[in-house]
Structures are given as structure tokens and as C-alpha cells.
Amino acid sequence: MRLSISKHIYAALSGSVDIQKAIGKNKIFPIATKNEVEFPFIVYERDNVTPQYDKSGESVTESSVNVYVLAENYTQSLDIAEKVIKALERNEAIYEDFEVINAIMIGASESYTSNTFIQQVAFTFMTKSK
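The structure assignment produced for this chain is given below.
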């Protein structure tokens, strides 16, 4: 279940009332959008997954994830990025096959391309398989 962090990302973002108010429904996508989507929307991707073992063989997994907020308006992109941070940072959760035991923001950047303001927020998640 080391790759299941995407399940948590989607659950946390889509479950946030603040994010739903800001972007509407069904506008959170893993990796990319298949079709053109009206602004604003969110795309997330798993960047790196690193298992870590202790002497007993128990393991936790560290996953790096980037979340991108895309909007036509700079201020709107910042506002939604702050909502993303609120929804994900320190958000621990228990699922049937794994649990998120730590979640921290590790960085952020911004860019502008093709009339789109993009906020990138990077997170590290620690998970443990059940």
C-alpha cells in the first residue's frame, strides 16, 4: 500500500468544504486532466516514494507529493493554495490498508504560463501499512 497516498490526497482535498466552495465539484485530478477544465482546478502528483525499515523489519513509507493550483487570477490561486495547505498539513488518517501518520508542507513555488497562474505546494507524507 505504499502507493496509496494518492487516495488520501483526493479524500482530504475533495472533503474540504473550503476547497469545494473555491473550485466547485469534480475539479481535483491525479497527474493531469483528460479534457479541458474550467479554472480554477487542482492537480496532484506523487513525486517520490521511499520505504524506510527499522531493525525489526517494520516499515514506514515517506511519500513526496506536489499539489498544483491552476487559476486565471493570481490572488485566487494563492487563496486556493492556502486552502490546500489547511486541508493536507498535519492531516492524519486511517484507511483500511494503511494509515497516514504525518503530513507536512515542505515547500512552495509559483509560475505563470499560457495565461494561467500556478501555485505548487510540496508535501511529505509518512504512511504505515496495516
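Interim note for the steering committee: The helical segments are 5-14, 17-23, 74-88. Residues 51 and 57 are 11 Å apart (CA to CA).
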